Amino acid sequence: MSRPLDWERDGRTWPHRTASRFVTTQGVRWHVQVMGNGSPVLLLHGTGASAHSWRGVMPLLARQFTVIAPDLPGHGFTRGRPRGGLSLPGMVAGVSDLLAELGQAPALLVGHSAGVAIGLALLGERDPAIPLVGFNPAIAPFPGLASKLFPALAKALFVNPFAPRMFARLARAPGETARFLARSTGSRIDAEGLRCYETLLGNARHCRGALDMMASWDLDRLDRALPGIANPVLLVHSAGDSAIQLSSVQKAAARLPNAVVEVVPDLGHLAHEEDPGHYTARVVDYARSLGV
Predict the structure, then answer these.
(1) Least confident segment among 27-31, 126-130, 279-283
(2) Could you tell me if 23 and 102 are in contact, meaning their C-beta atoms sit under 8 angstroms apart?
(3) What DSSP string runs through the chain?
(4) If pLDDT is split at 50, 70 and 90, which confidence band does 161 have?
(5) What's the mean pLDDT in 256-280?
(6) What is the predicted pLDDT for the residue at 184?
(7) What is the pLDDT of residue 267?
(8) Quick one: three-class SS letters along 23-60?
């Protein structure tokens, strides 16, 4: 589909639909889910996903926290572009606008994959005491020639109007989304999550947003900023992650003044969707250890 996702059509059975609201900021109409009471926790999903990726984590965290989970610009049911587009600074500016509109100042950030990069960049503008928990973080620049080729490839696909449509058409083939996720992430998720990814990846507008984000990404800038981010950081990586190498996580963590890396066996890149109970418990334990 080249038309945008429609909340009343495509979101009729979306996880935690009753927690959803739509909030408008400069240039963006956000789909965001909010639930629970207590200190605010911001959840940031990765490229190609949406707030649905936190469907298992949210109600567990909401027992102790106010949980805020937006669809990032270009993704899911969020519409429009923040100032700076879908670049890392643009995403940070957009999320900052959203938090201001909601009147929330997070006491803890939790990110997955590229959402960890957004969270770290956001921390650079906020209180150095705010902690971050990052799952399977995509925060290290690609090595050598890949650092030039990958953004160039994403840009080439982004400017090709047929590429997102072709990908979406492939994703709508029976069983293809499950196979794609297994190949690219090493994860096998539940039927509800798979249904959401089928809806997202089968939509050309969503695919185009993910490509736009990848084409605009500059992790070298973040890498240079890491030594100045003194916030407490816990990075949890999965041994079965076929998307992100553990060595890249360890390398980035070594540049952060106050970071710890933990490795979970077996699970893949979408580990927080495979075992939300374990990952929620890790967030809660880490928050408690820091007095959040």
Answers:
(1) 126-130
(2) yes
(3) --SPP-HHHHTTT-TTGGGEEEEEETTEEEEEEEE--SEEEEEE--TT--GGGGTTTHHHHTTTEEEEEEPPTTSTT-EE--TTTTSHHHHHHHHHHHHHHHT---SEEEEETHHHHHHHHHHTTS-TT--EEEES---SPPPTTHHHHHHHHHHHHHH-THHHHHHHHHHTSTTHHHHHHHHHH-----HHHHHHHHHHHT-HHHHHHHHHHHHH--HHHHHHHGGG--S-EEEEEETT-SSS-HHHHHHHHHHSTTEEEEEESS--TTHHHH-HHHHHHHHHHHHHHTT-
(4) low
(5) 95
(6) 87
(7) 95
(8) EEECCEEEEEEEECCCEEEEEECCCCCCHHHHCCCHHH
Phi, psi of 258 (to 5 degrees): -140, 55
Instruction: Please name the residues in contact with 201: beta carbons below 8 A apart, sequence gap of 6 or more.
Output: 48, 167, 168, 171, 177, 180, 207
Q: Which residue has the higher pLDDT, 33 or 164?
A: 33
Q: What is the pLDDT of residues 182-218, one digit of tens each?
A: 988 999 999 999 999 999 999 999 988 988 888 888 8
Q: CA end-to-end span of the chain, whole Å?
A: 43
| pLDDT class of 140 with cuts at 50, 70, 90 | confident
Q: Are 243 and 184 in contact (CB under 8 A)?
A: yes
Distances in Å between the Cα of 115 and the Cα atoms of 118, 133, 134, 166, 178 are: 5, 11, 8, 26, 22
| pTM, rounded to two decimals | 0.92
175-190 tens-digit pLDDT: 888 888 898 899 999 9
Cα angle 168, 158, 217 (rounded to 5 degrees) comes to 115
- Determine how many CB atoms are found less than 10 A away from the CB of residue 1: 16
